[in-house]
Amino acid sequence: EGEGEGEGEGEGEGEGEGEGEGEGEGEGEGEGEGEGEGEGEGEGEGEGEGEVEPAIEITPSPGSVIFFGAAALNTTVHETVTLKNVGVVPVSGDAVFLDGAVFSIVGDGTFQLQPGMSRILILSFTPNQEKVYTDTLQIGDGKHTYSLLINGIGASNTISCDLDGVSLPPAVAVIGDVAILLLFLLSLFFAGRR
């Protein structure tokens, strides 16, 4: 923002003189002069620097929900949040979880971004019980605080798979079940060809 002020002053002076002569009978002349001039000039220049607000872009946008989905107990899954300085001044701040029991930020949650720079925050979720978890991620830049709602589900971490009584993680158990089924079908197919 800039402000300018100008002042102008003007002065005017006037003088008047009069002379009069009379000649003859009943005649008279009179002269009068008066001058007045006034000039005023004003110039104003103003430069002002107001405080420039930091401008940070957060993806997903503040107010959004980050859903980690279902995660096996005592395993860790990740999501990301991107911070970008879209302003003209450096911005610094920090990101923290209000509860922080099962959600955390990998590394440090503080940030310092020059104009145009970005930082990716890696969020982790490590459930330890079978339940729905909720937390809030707060991101502050010194002037404003932005919030993101965080959700995740703690799920049973094993599925029984009949491979000699071994319990495997869900993805491995499903792949194992499919592999056993394929081997069984292939053995039936080749047994029937004899």
Question: Could you walk me through the main structural features you see in this protein, from its secondary elements to its overall organization?
Answer:
The protein has 194 residues and is mainly beta. 12% of the residues lie in helices and 52% in strands. The strands form four sheets. The protein has a five-stranded mixed β-sheet, with no helix packed on it. The protein has a four-stranded antiparallel β-sheet with strand order 3-5-9-7, with no helix packed on it. Strands 1-2 form a two-stranded antiparallel sheet. Strand 10 (132-140) and strand 11 (145-155) form a beta hairpin. The longest helix is centred in the C-terminal third of the chain and has 23 residues, at 170-192. The termini are far apart. 13% of the residues are buried. Residues 1-28 have low confidence and may be disordered.
Q: What is the average per-residue confidence, as pLDDT, rounded to a whole number?
A: 75
Taking pLDDT < 50 over at least 5 consecutive residues as the criterion, the unreliable ranges are 1-28
SSE topology string = EEEEEEEEEEEEEH
> What structural class is derived from the secondary structure elements?
mainly beta
Number of helices: 1
Radius of gyration: 42 Å
Shape: elongated
Largest sheet, in brief, is: 5 strands, mixed
Q: Distance between termini?
A: 91 Å
Neighbour order of strands in the largest sheet: 4-11-10-6-8
Tell me the helix content: 10-25%
Q: Based on DSSP secondary structure assignment, what is the total number of beta strands?
A: 13
Kindly estimate the percentage of residues that lie in beta strands according to DSSP.
over 45%
